[in-house]
Write a structure and sequence with these properties.
The complex is a heterodimer. Chain A is mainly alpha-helical. Chain A is about 80% helix and about 0% strand. Chain A has two domains: about 45 residues, no CATH class; about 220 residues, MetI-like fold (Orthogonal Bundle), CATH 1.10.3720. The two termini of chain A are about 45 Å apart. The longest helix of chain B has 18 residues. The chains are: A mainly alpha, B alpha+beta.
Chain lengths: ~280, ~350
């Protein structure tokens, strides 16, 4: 006789509850996945290939994309140098106001980015103190690459700080304590124990920050319209020439972003053998 | 030698208060106490990992109170070994020497000296995640010993091991300590482990040292209710001791009076170990002191031993071996006699 494969409920009816639940999750999840993927897929794969090719040959487009990648890299490098120490501080030390500081670090994520741009203008604009100080050494933040970099830094550095902080928290603090008793200074502990165990997630956070920086529009357009980064170029083309001219630039940016995400996933999936 | 004088440590939600401890050179000293009593905090304070509010710590002839952890020359081993997961066994053991910028030749020489001492020479090229619990503990010991520390600090080193491996590592640790003569401060919550391994013990509770002494002193003569209960002298009563006309001392708890062999008088505590409460089905010889009729109110099978609860009142816990229990055929509700030798009643002020 064939065994009854379906679990039987106490009242004798077949137990369909768990299947129904799974099905509901799959349907609802599928709808949102389709919502995210369909426009992106259509833009990349169903757009005019000729226009895409012309966009790749267009010097304005390539200059703009190059500038976007470059500025995002600079902002990520600054974010790494200044954000990783802050992340370690937040992960390891107790101090008054730590909770508020952690909340403030995440604030740029929820501030409207156009508002962030105006806030940055208030500090880095040539009429304000910090802007004046930088201006004295020849660095301008309005209509300049430096402006793009600080706008990108402001909106995307919380991603790196959060990733690094969580990554440091996952490193067992006793490893650091043992290292100290074995003669390591706090510097040696950081560079020989903590960072080697946390670098993978920090690098993934950095890539995420870089990708987020490249996609920034709102804060940059307040500070710097020219030189033009790719998201502003897409907007400009759309406004001036319509959808057909905007799509190729957007599609190229999308492919670059997708490549970054594949990189992040590969990095995180290649789990080290000590995990 | 470790000399701790009046140290106070304040951490969020916990404090070590006025801790004084003398650990002699070459001692295998065990600090024993329940969970969250401050054992690890004290160990880490000696290692320089917590700031002290007041007091002083000396290791050997050096005052290390204000010294950074890396300059104290102590070895530390945690319960789960805390091996560096990104380094091989060899690199784990060599870590301390590398931090001291020792030349490669010296590191190899030291590895060749320490690894055979613990029988881990064949493991040197392995990754740490592939080691068994016992092997990990030996690697952690080798890593701590390679720098020739003045003191070895062990935080529940046997806690994460299965019973068989625990015996092996326990034996290995006492052998090593004897061979190397290093001063060991071993922390555990397991009193049996403390008595088995320690040449001297300290009992800690709620951030203060409750008693220091040899295993025998702590086992037989607890000085407080806390220590008595922690050392498994489960029959602990508060009462009054008074001297009789004939020179005998009596300890009165409720309506029961026990003859005792100590001279304390007034309000005090009495501790009777469960293995010193004798239980018989028939009345023992007339005139045997401290013999009382009782009723069995509980029987707990603990494998080779059986815990019997007998109601005098007060309630007494008696420990029998399994064969004795089977031979006597005891049962719940049975009327029996309990006898406690006067010398087995330990009185203390508390």
């Amino acid at each position: 006789m064939q065994p009854d494969k379906e679990p039987i409920k106490p009242n004798g009816k077949r137990h369909w509850g768990s299947h129904g639940f799974t099905l509901m999750l799959a349907v609802l999840g599928g709808i949102i996945l389709l919502f995210i993927l369909a426009p992106l897929f259509k833009m990349v794969f169903l757009s005019d290939k000729q226009a895409l090719w012309l966009a790749l040959l267009d010097s304005d487009t390539m200059r703009s994309i190059g500038l976007t990648i470059y500025a995002a890299l600079i902002s990520t490098a600054i974010g790494f140098m200044l954000g990783v120490p802050l992340a370690y501080l937040l992960a390891r030390y107790q101090f008054p106001g730590k909770g508020i500081m952690e909340a403030l670090v995440d604030l740029p994520i929820v501030v409207p980015h156009s508002a962030a741009g105006i806030a940055l203008l208030f500090v880095f604009g040539s009429n304000f103190m910090v802007g004046e100080a930088f201006g004295a050494v020849g660095i301008q933040f309005v209509d300049s690459v430096a402006g793009i970099v600080i706008a990108m830094l402001f909106v995307s550095v919380p991603i790196l700080i959060s990733a690094a902080r969580e990554s440091f928290r996952k490193v067992d603090v006793r490893l650091e304590k043992v290292a100290r008793t074995l003669g390591a200074s706090p510097w040696q502990v950081f560079f020989r124990v903590t960072f080697p165990l946390a670098w993978r997630s920090i690098l993934a956070g950095s890539m995420m920050m870089w990708a987020r920086g490249m996609s920034e529009f709102g804060a940059i357009i307040i500070l710097t319209y020219h030189p033009t980064v790719a998201p502003i170029l897409v907007y400009e083309r759309f406004e001036t020439y319509g959808l057909a001219q905007a799509i190729p630039v957007a599609a190229i940016m999308l492919v670059i972003s997708a490549m970054v995400f594949v990189g992040i996933q590969t990095l995180l999936r290649r789990s080290p053998d000590y995990d | 030698m470790i000399s701790i004088e009046g140290i106070n440590v304040h951490l969020p939600g916990f404090a070590l208060r006025d801790v004084n401890l003398q650990i002699n050179s070459g001692d295998y000293f065990v600090l024993v106490g329940p969970s969250a009593s401050g054992k690890t905090v004290l160990l880490e304070t000696i290692a320089g990992l917590h700031k002290i509010a007041s007091g002083s710590i000396r290791i050997g002839d050096r005052d290390v109170t204000g010294l950074e952890s890396e300059k104290r020359n102590v070895g530390m081993v945690y319960q789960d070994c805390a091996l560096f997961p990104h380094l091989s066994v060899r690199e784990n053991i060599a870590f301390g020497l590398r931090m001291r910028r020792q030349p490669e030749q010296q590191i190899s020489r030291e590895l060749e000296r320490v690894a055979p001492l613990l029988g881990i020479a064949p493991l040197l090229s392995r990754r740490t995640k592939n080691l068994s619990g016992g092997e990990k503990q030996k690697v952690a010991l080798a890593r701590a010993l390679i720098t020739n520390p003045e003191v070895l600090l062990l935080d529940e080193p046997l806690g994460a091991l299965d019973p068989q491996t625990r015996e092996e590592v326990r034996h290995e640790m006492t052998r090593l300590q004897r061979e190397l003569g290093v001063t060991v401060l071993h922390v555990t919550h397991d009193f049996e482990e403390a008595v088995t391994m320690g040449t001297r013990l300290a009992v800690i509770g709620a951030g203060t040292i409750r008693q220091v002494g040899t295993p025998d002193e702590i086992f037989h003569s607890p000085e407080s209710e806390f220590v008595a209960r922690f050392t498994m002298a489960v029959n602990v009563f508060s009462g009054v001791a008074k001297r009789g006309r004939e020179g005998t001392t009596w300890f009165k708890v409720g309506n029961t009076e026990l003859v005792v062999a100590t001279n304390i008088e007034g309000e005090c505590w009495a501790a009777v170990r469960p293995e010193n409460v004798f239980i018989t089905a028939t009345r023992p010889t007339e005139g045997t002191p401290n013999t009382f009729p009782a009723v069995i109110t509980g029987i707990v099978n603990k494998g080779t031993l059986v815990n019997i609860k007998a109601e005098l009142p007060p309630e007494l816990i008696c420990l029998l071996t399994r064969p004795s229990f089977d031979r006597m055929g005891l049962d719940l509700g049975q009327e029996v006699f309990v006898t406690i030798a006067p010398s087995s009643v330990h009185l203390f002020r508390g």
